[in-house]
Amino acid sequence: MDQSSMFRAIPGVDETKQRLIDYDGSFAACPRESLRCLITAYWDRQRARIRAGELTDPCELALALHLPGLSQFLKSHLAPQLKKVINATGVVVHTNLGRSVLSEAAQAAVALAAGGYCNLELDLKRGSRGSRYALVEELLQSLTGAEAALVVNNNAAAVMLMLDTFCRGYEVIVSRGELVEIGGSFRIPAVMAKSGALLREVGATNRTHLADYAEAIGERTKALMRVHTSNFRVVGFHARVELAELAELAHANHLLLLEDLGSGSLMRFEQTGLPDEPTVQETIAQGADLVSFSGDKVLGGPQAGIIVGKAELIAQMKSNQLTRALRCDKLCYAALEATLRAYREPIRAREEIPTLRRILFSAKELKERACALQKTLSASLGERFDITLKEDVSRVGGGAFPQYDLPTWLVCLKPGDISASALKMALLSTDPPMLGRLEGEAFCLDPRTLDGADEALLVAVLRQAWDKAHSAQ
Ligand SMILES: *Cc1c(COP(=O)(O)O)cnc(C)c1O
User: Which of 53-62, 319-328, 445-454 has the lowest mean pLDDT?
Assistant: First the structure.
Protein backbone atom coordinates (compact mmCIF):
# COMPACT_ATOMS: atom_id res chain seq x y z
CA MET A 1 0.00 0.00 0.00
CA ASP A 2 1.39 3.44 -0.88
CA GLN A 3 1.91 6.12 1.75
CA SER A 4 -1.04 8.33 0.75
CA SER A 5 -3.48 5.40 1.11
CA MET A 6 -1.90 4.68 4.48
CA PHE A 7 -2.50 8.29 5.55
CA ARG A 8 -6.13 8.01 4.44
CA ALA A 9 -6.56 4.87 6.54
CA ILE A 10 -5.95 6.84 9.74
CA PRO A 11 -9.33 7.37 11.43
CA GLY A 12 -10.66 10.89 12.10
CA VAL A 13 -10.36 12.60 15.46
CA ASP A 14 -14.08 12.40 16.27
CA GLU A 15 -14.30 8.74 15.46
CA THR A 16 -11.20 8.04 17.51
CA LYS A 17 -12.60 10.03 20.42
CA GLN A 18 -15.89 8.16 20.46
CA ARG A 19 -14.26 4.74 20.26
CA LEU A 20 -11.86 5.75 22.98
CA ILE A 21 -14.69 6.72 25.34
CA ASP A 22 -16.43 3.41 24.59
CA TYR A 23 -13.16 1.67 25.44
CA ASP A 24 -12.51 3.59 28.67
CA GLY A 25 -15.37 5.66 30.09
CA SER A 26 -13.06 7.79 32.23
CA PHE A 27 -12.08 9.77 29.10
CA ALA A 28 -15.64 11.17 28.90
CA ALA A 29 -14.74 13.53 31.76
CA CYS A 30 -11.65 14.94 29.99
CA PRO A 31 -11.65 18.46 28.60
CA ARG A 32 -12.65 18.07 24.92
CA GLU A 33 -10.01 20.36 23.48
CA SER A 34 -7.12 18.62 25.26
CA LEU A 35 -8.45 15.28 24.12
CA ARG A 36 -8.68 16.45 20.49
CA CYS A 37 -5.16 17.91 20.59
CA LEU A 38 -3.67 14.76 22.07
CA ILE A 39 -5.46 12.45 19.65
CA THR A 40 -4.14 14.59 16.78
CA ALA A 41 -0.65 14.41 18.27
CA TYR A 42 -0.95 10.63 18.58
CA TRP A 43 -1.95 10.17 14.93
CA ASP A 44 0.76 12.65 13.88
CA ARG A 45 3.25 10.27 15.44
CA GLN A 46 1.86 7.41 13.42
CA ARG A 47 2.07 9.59 10.27
CA ALA A 48 5.73 10.24 11.04
CA ARG A 49 6.25 6.47 11.36
CA ILE A 50 4.61 5.95 7.96
CA ARG A 51 6.86 8.60 6.43
CA ALA A 52 9.91 6.98 7.99
CA GLY A 53 8.87 3.64 6.50
CA GLU A 54 8.40 2.07 9.95
CA LEU A 55 4.72 1.43 9.43
CA THR A 56 3.86 -0.30 6.16
CA ASP A 57 0.99 -2.60 6.99
CA PRO A 58 -2.43 -0.88 6.76
CA CYS A 59 -3.88 -3.39 9.25
CA GLU A 60 -1.62 -1.85 11.86
CA LEU A 61 -3.65 1.35 11.61
CA ALA A 62 -6.90 -0.33 12.66
CA LEU A 63 -8.25 1.72 15.53
CA ALA A 64 -9.02 -1.28 17.72
CA LEU A 65 -5.34 -2.19 17.76
CA HIS A 66 -4.42 1.29 18.88
CA LEU A 67 -6.87 1.78 21.74
CA PRO A 68 -4.65 0.46 24.58
CA GLY A 69 -1.59 2.39 23.36
CA LEU A 70 -3.60 5.52 22.67
CA SER A 71 -5.24 5.34 26.07
CA GLN A 72 -1.85 5.08 27.76
CA PHE A 73 -0.45 7.94 25.64
CA LEU A 74 -3.37 10.17 26.64
CA LYS A 75 -3.20 9.24 30.31
CA SER A 76 0.50 9.98 30.52
CA HIS A 77 0.01 13.37 28.83
CA LEU A 78 -3.09 14.38 30.78
CA ALA A 79 -1.45 13.64 34.14
CA PRO A 80 0.85 16.26 35.70
CA GLN A 81 4.44 15.77 34.54
CA LEU A 82 5.88 16.51 37.98
CA LYS A 83 4.58 13.84 40.31
CA LYS A 84 5.14 12.07 43.58
CA VAL A 85 7.79 9.33 43.50
CA ILE A 86 8.34 6.86 46.34
CA ASN A 87 12.00 6.93 47.36
CA ALA A 88 13.07 3.48 48.53
CA THR A 89 16.73 4.01 47.63
CA GLY A 90 17.85 5.09 51.09
CA VAL A 91 19.65 8.08 49.52
CA VAL A 92 18.35 10.89 51.72
CA VAL A 93 19.30 13.92 49.60
CA HIS A 94 18.52 12.46 46.17
CA THR A 95 19.02 15.16 43.54
CA ASN A 96 16.97 13.28 40.92
CA LEU A 97 14.08 13.10 43.39
CA GLY A 98 14.06 16.75 44.42
CA ARG A 99 16.61 16.58 47.26
CA SER A 100 15.18 17.50 50.67
CA VAL A 101 11.62 16.81 51.76
CA LEU A 102 10.31 19.83 53.67
CA SER A 103 9.26 19.71 57.31
CA GLU A 104 5.57 20.02 58.10
CA ALA A 105 6.14 23.56 59.35
CA ALA A 106 7.86 24.45 56.07
CA GLN A 107 5.07 22.86 54.02
CA ALA A 108 2.48 24.87 55.94
CA ALA A 109 4.46 28.09 55.45
CA VAL A 110 4.66 27.43 51.70
CA ALA A 111 0.92 26.80 51.50
CA LEU A 112 0.22 30.05 53.34
CA ALA A 113 2.50 32.11 51.08
CA ALA A 114 1.22 30.39 47.94
CA GLY A 115 -2.47 30.82 48.72
CA GLY A 116 -2.50 34.52 49.53
CA TYR A 117 -0.65 37.80 49.62
CA CYS A 118 2.24 38.22 52.04
CA ASN A 119 4.72 40.86 53.20
CA LEU A 120 7.50 39.65 50.90
CA GLU A 121 8.65 43.21 50.28
CA LEU A 122 6.58 45.24 52.70
CA ASP A 123 8.03 46.78 55.84
CA LEU A 124 5.17 46.35 58.28
CA LYS A 125 6.69 48.82 60.77
CA ARG A 126 6.79 51.72 58.32
CA GLY A 127 4.21 50.68 55.79
CA SER A 128 6.73 51.26 53.00
CA ARG A 129 8.64 49.04 50.63
CA GLY A 130 10.78 46.53 52.48
CA SER A 131 13.42 44.06 51.37
CA ARG A 132 12.95 40.33 50.91
CA TYR A 133 16.61 39.92 51.83
CA ALA A 134 15.77 40.98 55.39
CA LEU A 135 13.26 38.15 55.96
CA VAL A 136 15.70 35.48 57.13
CA GLU A 137 18.78 37.59 57.76
CA GLU A 138 18.40 37.86 61.55
CA LEU A 139 17.77 34.14 61.85
CA LEU A 140 20.88 33.35 59.82
CA GLN A 141 22.94 35.82 61.85
CA SER A 142 21.94 34.23 65.12
CA LEU A 143 22.35 30.64 63.87
CA THR A 144 25.75 31.12 62.22
CA GLY A 145 27.27 34.01 64.18
CA ALA A 146 27.90 35.84 60.90
CA GLU A 147 27.42 39.61 60.65
CA ALA A 148 25.08 39.38 57.67
CA ALA A 149 23.43 36.99 55.22
CA LEU A 150 21.98 36.87 51.72
CA VAL A 151 19.89 34.18 50.03
CA VAL A 152 19.89 33.48 46.29
CA ASN A 153 18.46 30.81 44.00
CA ASN A 154 20.96 28.03 44.74
CA ASN A 155 24.53 27.50 45.82
CA ALA A 156 25.78 27.62 42.23
CA ALA A 157 24.31 31.13 42.03
CA ALA A 158 25.87 32.00 45.39
CA VAL A 159 29.36 31.03 44.20
CA MET A 160 28.85 32.88 40.93
CA LEU A 161 27.68 35.98 42.80
CA MET A 162 30.64 36.02 45.21
CA LEU A 163 33.11 35.73 42.33
CA ASP A 164 31.31 38.24 40.12
CA THR A 165 31.05 40.84 42.87
CA PHE A 166 34.62 40.71 44.16
CA CYS A 167 36.90 38.85 41.79
CA ARG A 168 36.02 39.85 38.20
CA GLY A 169 39.33 40.55 36.45
CA TYR A 170 41.35 39.39 39.48
CA GLU A 171 43.04 36.17 40.47
CA VAL A 172 41.52 33.70 42.88
CA ILE A 173 43.77 31.03 44.35
CA VAL A 174 42.28 27.52 44.64
CA SER A 175 43.94 24.22 45.54
CA ARG A 176 44.21 21.67 42.70
CA GLY A 177 42.61 19.19 45.07
CA GLU A 178 39.42 21.27 45.10
CA LEU A 179 38.77 21.94 41.40
CA VAL A 180 35.68 19.77 41.55
CA GLU A 181 32.83 18.97 39.22
CA ILE A 182 29.47 18.63 40.96
CA GLY A 183 26.63 16.76 39.20
CA GLY A 184 24.86 18.66 36.43
CA SER A 185 28.20 19.91 35.04
CA PHE A 186 28.90 22.59 37.65
CA ARG A 187 32.69 22.82 37.47
CA ILE A 188 34.63 25.23 39.61
CA PRO A 189 37.09 26.23 36.82
CA ALA A 190 34.19 26.82 34.40
CA VAL A 191 32.20 28.84 36.94
CA MET A 192 35.26 31.00 37.55
CA ALA A 193 35.77 31.58 33.86
CA LYS A 194 32.11 32.55 33.50
CA SER A 195 32.31 35.01 36.38
CA GLY A 196 35.36 36.70 34.87
CA ALA A 197 37.61 35.69 37.78
CA LEU A 198 41.00 34.23 36.90
CA LEU A 199 41.72 30.86 38.42
CA ARG A 200 45.17 30.44 39.92
CA GLU A 201 45.56 26.77 40.79
CA VAL A 202 48.10 25.72 43.39
CA GLY A 203 49.40 22.54 44.99
CA ALA A 204 48.90 18.97 43.83
CA THR A 205 45.77 16.85 43.49
CA ASN A 206 46.37 15.15 46.83
CA ARG A 207 48.40 17.71 48.79
CA THR A 208 48.38 21.47 49.04
CA HIS A 209 50.35 23.39 51.67
CA LEU A 210 50.14 26.89 53.10
CA ALA A 211 53.36 27.80 51.27
CA ASP A 212 51.69 26.95 47.93
CA TYR A 213 49.04 29.59 48.56
CA ALA A 214 51.58 32.10 49.92
CA GLU A 215 53.87 31.77 46.89
CA ALA A 216 51.00 32.30 44.45
CA ILE A 217 49.88 35.61 45.95
CA GLY A 218 50.66 38.48 43.60
CA GLU A 219 49.53 41.92 42.38
CA ARG A 220 46.36 40.62 40.80
CA THR A 221 45.26 38.32 43.64
CA LYS A 222 41.93 39.17 45.21
CA ALA A 223 40.91 36.07 47.14
CA LEU A 224 41.78 32.64 48.41
CA MET A 225 38.96 30.20 47.89
CA ARG A 226 38.20 26.82 49.43
CA VAL A 227 35.74 24.45 47.81
CA HIS A 228 34.22 21.48 49.56
CA THR A 229 35.14 18.35 47.61
CA SER A 230 31.54 17.14 48.02
CA ASN A 231 31.12 14.09 45.85
CA PHE A 232 34.52 12.45 46.13
CA ARG A 233 36.96 11.58 48.83
CA VAL A 234 40.74 11.55 48.84
CA VAL A 235 42.20 8.74 50.91
CA GLY A 236 45.83 7.97 51.62
CA PHE A 237 48.65 10.51 51.34
CA HIS A 238 46.92 13.86 51.35
CA ALA A 239 46.99 17.25 53.04
CA ARG A 240 44.77 20.27 53.16
CA VAL A 241 45.51 23.59 54.88
CA GLU A 242 43.55 24.42 58.04
CA LEU A 243 41.00 27.15 57.48
CA ALA A 244 42.29 29.30 60.35
CA GLU A 245 45.77 29.31 58.78
CA LEU A 246 44.36 30.28 55.39
CA ALA A 247 42.36 33.08 57.03
CA GLU A 248 45.52 34.44 58.65
CA LEU A 249 47.37 34.34 55.34
CA ALA A 250 44.50 35.97 53.44
CA HIS A 251 44.02 38.78 55.94
CA ALA A 252 47.74 39.52 56.31
CA ASN A 253 47.72 40.13 52.55
CA HIS A 254 44.42 42.07 52.50
CA LEU A 255 42.73 39.29 50.54
CA LEU A 256 39.30 37.73 50.94
CA LEU A 257 38.82 34.18 52.11
CA LEU A 258 35.82 32.61 50.38
CA GLU A 259 34.47 29.17 51.21
CA ASP A 260 32.04 27.14 49.11
CA LEU A 261 30.88 24.64 51.72
CA GLY A 262 28.66 22.75 49.25
CA SER A 263 26.09 21.04 51.38
CA GLY A 264 26.96 22.89 54.56
CA SER A 265 25.33 22.12 57.86
CA LEU A 266 24.39 23.93 61.02
CA MET A 267 24.76 20.70 62.93
CA ARG A 268 27.37 18.02 63.55
CA PHE A 269 26.59 14.37 62.90
CA GLU A 270 29.21 12.84 65.19
CA GLN A 271 26.90 10.13 66.59
CA THR A 272 26.25 8.63 63.15
CA GLY A 273 29.85 7.77 62.38
CA LEU A 274 29.93 10.39 59.62
CA PRO A 275 33.13 12.45 59.43
CA ASP A 276 33.28 15.36 61.78
CA GLU A 277 32.97 18.21 59.30
CA PRO A 278 33.01 21.84 60.41
CA THR A 279 29.60 23.49 60.57
CA VAL A 280 28.78 26.81 58.93
CA GLN A 281 29.15 28.61 62.28
CA GLU A 282 32.59 27.02 62.85
CA THR A 283 33.70 28.04 59.36
CA ILE A 284 32.71 31.63 60.11
CA ALA A 285 34.43 31.51 63.51
CA GLN A 286 37.64 30.29 61.88
CA GLY A 287 37.82 33.44 59.80
CA ALA A 288 36.17 32.84 56.41
CA ASP A 289 34.91 36.20 55.10
CA LEU A 290 32.06 34.67 53.10
CA VAL A 291 30.65 31.15 53.28
CA SER A 292 28.11 29.74 50.83
CA PHE A 293 26.01 26.57 51.10
CA SER A 294 22.87 24.93 49.71
CA GLY A 295 19.42 25.20 51.27
CA ASP A 296 18.18 21.79 50.08
CA LYS A 297 21.08 19.48 50.84
CA VAL A 298 21.83 18.51 54.45
CA LEU A 299 20.20 21.69 55.78
CA GLY A 300 16.88 20.11 54.77
CA GLY A 301 15.09 23.14 53.33
CA PRO A 302 14.09 24.45 49.89
CA GLN A 303 16.43 24.98 46.95
CA ALA A 304 18.47 28.05 47.86
CA GLY A 305 22.02 29.34 48.03
CA ILE A 306 22.82 30.90 51.38
CA ILE A 307 25.75 33.27 51.80
CA VAL A 308 26.81 34.40 55.27
CA GLY A 309 29.73 36.57 56.31
CA LYS A 310 31.03 40.12 56.69
CA ALA A 311 28.33 42.82 56.63
CA GLU A 312 30.25 45.09 54.28
CA LEU A 313 30.73 42.31 51.71
CA ILE A 314 27.10 41.16 51.90
CA ALA A 315 26.00 44.78 51.36
CA GLN A 316 28.15 44.98 48.20
CA MET A 317 26.60 41.78 46.90
CA LYS A 318 23.08 43.06 47.58
CA SER A 319 23.72 46.03 45.30
CA ASN A 320 25.15 43.89 42.47
CA GLN A 321 22.66 43.86 39.57
CA LEU A 322 23.23 40.12 39.22
CA THR A 323 21.59 39.57 42.64
CA ARG A 324 18.27 40.75 41.19
CA ALA A 325 18.49 38.01 38.58
CA LEU A 326 19.32 35.37 41.18
CA ARG A 327 16.75 36.21 43.83
CA CYS A 328 14.34 33.73 45.41
CA ASP A 329 10.56 33.87 45.39
CA LYS A 330 8.12 33.95 48.29
CA LEU A 331 7.71 30.15 48.38
CA CYS A 332 11.42 29.69 48.92
CA TYR A 333 11.54 32.29 51.71
CA ALA A 334 8.52 30.74 53.40
CA ALA A 335 10.08 27.28 53.42
CA LEU A 336 13.53 28.51 54.36
CA GLU A 337 12.35 30.61 57.27
CA ALA A 338 10.34 27.72 58.73
CA THR A 339 13.28 25.34 58.28
CA LEU A 340 15.77 27.71 59.90
CA ARG A 341 13.41 28.42 62.81
CA ALA A 342 13.50 24.75 63.77
CA TYR A 343 17.28 25.00 64.16
CA ARG A 344 16.88 27.38 67.07
CA GLU A 345 16.24 24.23 69.09
CA PRO A 346 18.52 21.51 67.70
CA ILE A 347 16.48 18.70 69.31
CA ARG A 348 13.39 19.96 67.50
CA ALA A 349 15.30 20.29 64.24
CA ARG A 350 16.39 16.64 64.43
CA GLU A 351 12.83 15.50 64.87
CA GLU A 352 11.03 17.89 62.54
CA ILE A 353 13.31 18.17 59.53
CA PRO A 354 12.95 14.96 57.48
CA THR A 355 16.47 15.16 56.04
CA LEU A 356 18.04 15.31 59.51
CA ARG A 357 15.71 12.68 60.94
CA ARG A 358 16.53 10.27 58.11
CA ILE A 359 20.29 10.81 58.34
CA LEU A 360 20.11 10.22 62.10
CA PHE A 361 18.02 7.01 62.13
CA SER A 362 19.88 4.30 64.04
CA ALA A 363 20.46 0.82 62.61
CA LYS A 364 18.21 -0.49 65.39
CA GLU A 365 15.27 1.74 64.40
CA LEU A 366 15.76 0.85 60.75
CA LYS A 367 15.85 -2.86 61.52
CA GLU A 368 12.52 -2.53 63.34
CA ARG A 369 11.03 -0.66 60.39
CA ALA A 370 12.40 -3.19 57.93
CA CYS A 371 10.91 -6.07 59.98
CA ALA A 372 7.51 -4.39 60.11
CA LEU A 373 7.61 -3.73 56.37
CA GLN A 374 8.66 -7.30 55.63
CA LYS A 375 5.64 -8.54 57.61
CA THR A 376 3.18 -6.29 55.78
CA LEU A 377 4.59 -7.12 52.36
CA SER A 378 4.74 -10.86 53.08
CA ALA A 379 1.11 -10.88 54.18
CA SER A 380 -0.13 -9.38 50.90
CA LEU A 381 2.55 -10.24 48.37
CA GLY A 382 4.15 -13.37 49.79
CA GLU A 383 2.94 -15.41 46.82
CA ARG A 384 4.55 -13.12 44.31
CA PHE A 385 7.86 -12.36 45.99
CA ASP A 386 10.42 -14.07 48.15
CA ILE A 387 10.96 -11.43 50.85
CA THR A 388 14.04 -11.30 53.11
CA LEU A 389 15.98 -8.82 55.24
CA LYS A 390 19.59 -7.85 54.68
CA GLU A 391 22.01 -5.70 56.66
CA ASP A 392 23.48 -3.04 54.38
CA VAL A 393 24.35 0.67 54.16
CA SER A 394 22.69 3.82 52.84
CA ARG A 395 24.16 7.10 51.69
CA VAL A 396 23.38 10.72 52.52
CA GLY A 397 23.57 11.82 48.85
CA GLY A 398 23.57 15.29 47.30
CA GLY A 399 27.36 15.29 47.34
CA ALA A 400 27.37 15.36 51.14
CA PHE A 401 29.57 12.90 53.04
CA PRO A 402 30.63 10.95 49.91
CA GLN A 403 31.51 7.28 50.33
CA TYR A 404 30.51 7.30 53.99
CA ASP A 405 28.17 4.54 55.03
CA LEU A 406 25.10 4.82 57.21
CA PRO A 407 24.15 1.36 58.55
CA THR A 408 20.70 0.19 57.51
CA TRP A 409 18.49 -2.89 56.92
CA LEU A 410 17.03 -3.59 53.49
CA VAL A 411 13.83 -5.42 52.62
CA CYS A 412 14.84 -7.54 49.60
CA LEU A 413 12.27 -8.77 47.09
CA LYS A 414 12.97 -11.60 44.66
CA PRO A 415 10.17 -11.63 42.13
CA GLY A 416 10.23 -15.34 41.20
CA ASP A 417 9.99 -15.78 37.47
CA ILE A 418 10.75 -12.21 36.38
CA SER A 419 14.07 -10.47 36.89
CA ALA A 420 14.66 -7.83 39.56
CA SER A 421 15.66 -5.37 36.84
CA ALA A 422 12.36 -5.96 34.99
CA LEU A 423 10.59 -5.19 38.27
CA LYS A 424 12.69 -2.05 38.67
CA MET A 425 11.69 -0.87 35.16
CA ALA A 426 8.02 -1.66 35.79
CA LEU A 427 8.11 0.41 38.97
CA LEU A 428 8.93 3.52 36.90
CA SER A 429 5.42 3.57 35.47
CA THR A 430 3.34 2.61 38.50
CA ASP A 431 1.08 5.16 40.15
CA PRO A 432 3.06 6.59 41.87
CA PRO A 433 6.41 5.40 40.50
CA MET A 434 8.91 3.96 42.97
CA LEU A 435 12.70 4.01 42.92
CA GLY A 436 14.60 1.36 44.88
CA ARG A 437 17.90 -0.49 44.79
CA LEU A 438 19.03 -3.44 42.73
CA GLU A 439 21.27 -5.73 44.77
CA GLY A 440 22.20 -8.77 42.70
CA GLU A 441 19.03 -10.78 42.02
CA ALA A 442 16.90 -8.74 44.41
CA PHE A 443 15.05 -5.45 44.29
CA CYS A 444 15.54 -3.80 47.68
CA LEU A 445 13.71 -1.18 49.71
CA ASP A 446 15.65 0.90 52.24
CA PRO A 447 13.33 2.01 55.07
CA ARG A 448 15.54 5.06 55.76
CA THR A 449 13.78 7.11 53.08
CA LEU A 450 10.39 5.40 53.43
CA ASP A 451 9.80 7.20 56.71
CA GLY A 452 6.15 8.27 56.64
CA ALA A 453 5.35 6.20 53.53
CA ASP A 454 1.96 4.58 53.35
CA GLU A 455 2.48 0.80 53.54
CA ALA A 456 -0.81 0.06 51.76
CA LEU A 457 0.44 2.20 48.89
CA LEU A 458 3.74 0.29 48.76
CA VAL A 459 1.80 -2.97 48.50
CA ALA A 460 -0.41 -1.56 45.72
CA VAL A 461 2.54 -0.24 43.75
CA LEU A 462 4.51 -3.49 43.99
CA ARG A 463 1.45 -5.47 42.92
CA GLN A 464 0.94 -3.16 39.91
CA ALA A 465 4.59 -3.51 38.91
CA TRP A 466 4.55 -7.29 39.27
CA ASP A 467 1.46 -7.51 37.05
CA LYS A 468 2.96 -5.13 34.49
CA ALA A 469 6.26 -6.97 34.35
CA HIS A 470 4.37 -10.23 33.81
CA SER A 471 2.11 -8.95 31.08
CA ALA A 472 5.16 -7.51 29.29
CA GLN A 473 6.86 -10.94 29.28
C1 LIG B 1 26.14 21.02 45.52
C2 LIG B 1 27.29 21.96 45.41
C3 LIG B 1 27.19 23.15 44.67
C4 LIG B 1 25.93 23.51 43.94
O5 LIG B 1 24.91 23.76 44.85
P6 LIG B 1 23.40 23.92 44.32
O7 LIG B 1 22.66 24.37 45.53
O8 LIG B 1 23.01 22.58 43.81
O9 LIG B 1 23.43 24.94 43.23
C10 LIG B 1 28.28 23.99 44.61
N11 LIG B 1 29.41 23.68 45.24
C12 LIG B 1 29.56 22.54 45.95
C13 LIG B 1 30.87 22.27 46.61
C14 LIG B 1 28.51 21.64 46.07
O15 LIG B 1 28.63 20.52 46.77
Answer: 53-62
